Amino acid sequence: MEPAPLPPQPRSALRRYLPLSVAGVIVVGFAVALIMSFSGGSSESSSDVTKLDPNAQQPPELATTNDVTGTKLPKLSYVAFDGSTNELSANGKPLLINVWSSTCVPCVTEMPALEKVWQANRENINILGLDYLEPPDLGQAMADRTGVTYSLGRDTKGTILRSLGGVGLPYTVLVSANGTILATHSGALTETQFAELVKTATGK
Question: For the chain, how many structural domains are there in total?
Answer without folding.
Answer: 2
